[in-house]
């Protein structure tokens, strides 16, 4: 997630090379080979008729994105979370609070992922410093101007977040809401991955122009924010998202957008606010199908 920009997704694919087996030497036959007689075919009384199916079976990979069962799985449930006192002035404090937040989201999303006929993997929260990215090998080469990014590797979802922004904050209450919004967005990517959306959405990119591919990316990113907001809305009492904190949250989601970046791959401020605020109210992924929305809503 950019600094006041929606999350940048990093998909890491590991290719494993396999050694090519050596073929055993084939012995050279000795002597003169005996020729084999070619058998004559036996004529059939009734000739075989080969037919071509008029309705061949096709598999539309985009169905898993556009008509995913997650959209009909119901509302995000309220879960009991024993939140620690937020101490966001240290990396240890950020991780401690973030781990509880991730556990809350895992328990909330699990029944919906199951209803979508999918399996939810565990998630690991990893802090890194943009000033010293090589110090955290699991989060090397972070996207430019990003506060966090998500990828899946080693059978585990990875949420990498930059601690520098939060450790330098002067307003700790605003800092807390901003941190919750960021982690909820990144977990939205994990939900997308769990139900197959993040894997299959690449099929929507095929054959499209550069502008068309950017639109697909915006649909993906706006959906992640929407899913994160659905969780926060369902559990707003747990996270005390009312009064000042709710005003902070509304300010944050209305100031996330491509206006702060040179690349239009995450959506405008207006559209980010549209998808997050309605999901916060509905608490349902049914309001997060950005892949069927008109282009104007994902610009």
Your description of this structure?
- By secondary structure, the chain is of the alpha/beta class.
- It has one domain.
- The chain contains 9 helices and 4 strands.
- Strands 1-3-4-2 form a 4-stranded mixed β-sheet.
- Strand 3 and strand 4 (156-162) form a beta hairpin.
- Helix 4 (172-194) packs across helix 7, helix 4 packs across helix 8 (243-253) and helix 7 packs parallel to helix 9 (269-282).
- The chain is globular and about 45 Å long.
How are the elements arranged and paired?
Blueprint lengths: L7 E2 L53 H4 L24 H25 L7 E6 L19 E6 L2 E7 H5 L4 H23 L2 H4 L1 H4 L4 H25 L8 H11 L15 H14 L17
Parallel strand pairs: 1-3, 2-4
Antiparallel strand pairs: 3-4
TL;DR of this structure?
The chain has helices at residues 63-66, 91-115, 163-167, 172-194, 197-200, 202-205, 210-234, 243-253, 269-282; strands spanning 8-9, 123-128, 148-153, 156-162.
Which key features would you list for this structure?
299 residues, alpha/beta, globular
């Amino acid at each position: 997630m950019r600094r006041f920009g929606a999350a940048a997704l990093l998909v890491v694919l590991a290719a494993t090379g396999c050694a090519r087996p050596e073929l055993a030497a084939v012995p050279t036959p000795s002597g003169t080979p005996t020729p084999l007689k070619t058998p004559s075919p036996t004529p059939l009384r009734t000739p075989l008729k080969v037919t071509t199916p008029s309705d061949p079976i096709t598999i539309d990979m985009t169905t898993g994105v556009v008509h995913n069962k997650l959209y009909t799985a119901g509302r995000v449930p309220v879960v009991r979370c024993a939140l620690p006192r937020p101490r966001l002035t240290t990396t240890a404090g950020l991780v401690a609070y973030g781990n509880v937040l991730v556990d809350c989201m895992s328990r909330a999303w699990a029944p919906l992922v199951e209803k979508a006929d999918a399996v939810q993997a565990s998630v690991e929260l990893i802090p890194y410093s943009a000033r010293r990215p090589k110090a955290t090998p699991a989060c090397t080469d972070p996207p430019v101007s990003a506060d966090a990014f998500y990828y899946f590797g080693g059978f585990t979802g990875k949420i990498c977040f930059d601690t520098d922004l939060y450790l330098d904050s002067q307003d700790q209450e605003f800092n807390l809401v901003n941190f919750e919004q960021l982690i909820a967005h990144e977990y939205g990517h994990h939900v997308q991955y769990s139900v197959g959306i993040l894997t299959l959405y690449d099929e929507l990119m095929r054959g499209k122009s550069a502008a068309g591919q950017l639109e697909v990316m915006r649909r993906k990113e706006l959906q992640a924010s929407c899913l994160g907001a659905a969780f926060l809305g369902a559990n707003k009492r747990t996270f005390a998202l009312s009064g000042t904190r709710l005003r902070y949250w509304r300010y944050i989601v209305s100031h996330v957008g491509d206006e702060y970046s040179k690349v239009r791959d995450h959506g405008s401020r207006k559209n980010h606010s549209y998808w997050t605020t309605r999901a916060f109210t509905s608490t349902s992924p049914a309001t997060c199908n950005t892949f069927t929305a008109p282009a104007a809503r994902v610009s």
